Model the fold of this input.
Amino acid sequence: MNYEPIIGLEVHVELKTKSKMFCGCSADYFGNKPNTHTCPTCLGLPGALPVPNKTAIEWCIKIGIALNCEIPLTSKFDRKNYFYPDLAKGYQISQYDQPFCQNGWIEVLTEDNKIKRIGITRVHMEEDTGKLSHKGNVSLIDFNRSGVPLVEIVTEPDFRSSFEVNQYLQKLQQIVRYLNVSNADMEKGDMRLEPNISLRIIGEIELPKYKVEIKNINSFRFVDKSIQFEIKRQRELLDKNEIPLQETRGWEELKQITISQRIKEKANDYRYFPEPDIPPIEWDKLQIDKITSQMPELPNDKLIRFEKEYQLSSYNAEILIRDASLAAYFEKAVFQSKGVLSQKQIANTLINKKINILSISVKDLIKDIIHSSKKEGIDEIELSKITDDVLKNNQKAVDEFRNGKEVVIMFLIGQVMKSINKKIDIEIIKNILKNKLNKK
Amino acid sequence: MSKIDISRIAKLANIPLDDENKNKLEEQLLETIYYIESLQEINTDGKEPTNQVTGLKNIFREDIISKSFSQEEALRNSSCTEKGMFKVKAILSSD
Ligand SMILES: [Zn+2]
Done:
């Protein structure tokens, strides 16, 4: 049978607000002493009252706007109930039927270089859980992460390959970094990915009756590998006329396989209900317009503008816009060197010489480019002619050199420099002179 | 009778129950459900769904850090700690 993969994605992005989602504890927990960023609210102590962080909600909405979502004018929080030791309250404050953002889309490139639209089902706001470390027959809990703002972005099952998934993830990471709402650092757990995969016989229209969710993925590379593995595993089952189990599996990097974690709980097992401690949220259109007006230029728009405005190849433009600060650096350099350097010279230097923009100011970079372009700028034929003249007019020095008095070359270099009246690299002149002197 | 699956509810609520208590609670829960069901008799045509009765909306806080507990304070109510962390019996993701 011929199957096609049906893949959807849930991505959790941890926001880099100063404080947590529902209390004033610092949200910057990474590498801190355990249980030093807690209070009655994020420890789930009785009587504590959660109050939503306005900045976190605005950032969630910015992500939604960047993903072309509708922003409903009413929204609310809900309780998602389950028992697990990393969850202090016995429920997580999340959003169920009225997320902040819904029905969006994003465009990605497919393998054959076509643009494809991926549907964004919803973007909602929730809180992170504490961190568990397992040690033999006990688990240790650190609640510093408990209550840190988390945005969940859910796609439609629109991906047909791990390549498309990867394109999407790169874009999403770039967008949240452009918005400056998350570092989206995979290794630090700022961005967590959960693909769900099933296979469908090519030609069928309905979605498969099962799906397998993969957890435990902490790099883009593992997404690719785990999806490839699942496609193969499920195909083998289907070929034997078995339907793969609807379940959650974890990626085991050491063994390069996915392993069953637990049968997926049905949504109603979480017994969602409206969070009674947090009043509903109602926007008026002006508030949403205001957030929209604060949106920075997004990667796609910047790419198109760079190609047009600076006449860059799409390859070069793509590299320059990958990081918003590199793009800004480039534009500053173009502006400051107007009439002296071309946009292409600056782009090439930044890309080919892999300039570390943190270690050199725009001003110094411009100076460096001008300096080195002068050194390299001398015409080789002209230089060859000048050195010939110098050698002809200084026969005595030439003889001395050939008799082993190599230091005279410095005198000859000086003569060449005098005739050019330009600052060029001594080494270049030295090499040309040596070549000519040794030839004869 | 079996309108509810008491074992499942007990499991979801993380409450261990013996058979005697299961029967007792199943009866009580059913009674509650029947009582609540009398609400179905009320005509709610034209009524907006309500999930908040405070009349409040848009209660936010600014993104400002306030003081947290010290580690000692955070752990004070716990009978079992290790290395500044709460200690519990290992929970495997399979259960
Ligand atoms: Zn707190």
User: Anything to note?
Assistant: Helices of chain B lie at 6-12, 19-37, 71-75.
